[in-house]
Amino acid sequence: MEMEATAGGCPAPQSSALHRIGRSLATSAVRVAISSAAAAVVTSLALLAWAVRRGDLYTSASDLGYWLGVAGGSLMVVLLIYPLRKRFRMLAVLGPLKHWFRFHIVAGIVGPVIVLFHSTFHVGSFNAAIALACMLLVVASGLVGRFIYRKIHHGLYGSRATAADLQRTLEQQVASLEGVLFRLPVIEREISRFSALASLQPQGRWRRGLHFASLGWQRHMAGRRVRRAIAGCDAATNARLHTLARTIDDTLKAMQRTAQFSTYERLFSLWHVVHIPFLCMLVVTAIIHVVAVHAY
Length: 296
Hints:
- 77% of the residues lie in helices and 1% in strands.
- The protein has helices at 15-54, 63-78, 81-87, 97-118, 126-152, 163-176, 178-181, 185-198, 205-230, 238-295; strands at residues 4-5, 11-12.
């Protein structure tokens, strides 16, 4: 990392650093805008759901309720194309797998939401209750799977990461800090401490589980201690230190991800064992529900 030390031993700001900071701030602004829009949508849906459940706007058997059920059910049927497209090469004519994965994620959320509005957030029969429970199980397991998926892939739609990829990322992050480690010894101390912690291999299932679960918190606390030390530098270098703090955070995150990678791979394999049966249960119960609705 290109840096010059000030009299206090802290890195001095440079024009290239200011350019990177500008891009970082622009990215942060976009993320805030997206988060705000998502929060507005969720709040609006929550208020609408409350009105539907408390009011008498429509029933699940009315025309609106019926077609909401058709729309939500159709989305959940079409999302099954993704696992089929993934397993059968002959379906490659349907388009790139990453696009179907995007649709699978979106339809797996939008479809159940529409079905909930179809039900007016009431359960009218036993078979409907079973179908609803299976749907919620599939949605919950899907959200868990999405979380684990991002831990072992490059981005949500990216290629699968490997331990070697993560190790290279970690080495690049550490190398970028070499120019400042000797000027701010607290950084070297915290990185070394967290690196040793991440490399531990505790004996016993419970100890390994506790170590795995606590790494995120340990990284967060290490980052706080580093930022507190950086904050003591000259105010004139704050902009440059902002970039430095981000680089340190990236380094600690790379260490955490490298340490947790193999565990997340095993969890993802186990997740498939759970998610697929839930999906099959949903298909069966949904078919029974549709037949019961039209037959009686």
